[in-house]
Amino acid sequence: MDDVLKRYEDKMKKTLAAMEDGFAGLRTGRASAALFDKIRVDAYGGKSPLKEVANISIPEARLVVIQPWDKALLGEVEKAIRVSELSLNPANDGKLIRISIPPLTGDRRKELVKQAKTQAEQARVSVRNIRRDGNDELKKLLKDSGITEDEESKTSTELQKLTDRYIGLIDKSVKDKEKEIMEV
Question: Per-residue DSSP letters for 57-96?
Answer without folding.
Answer: EEEETTEEEEEESSGGGHHHHHHHHHHSTT----EE-SS-
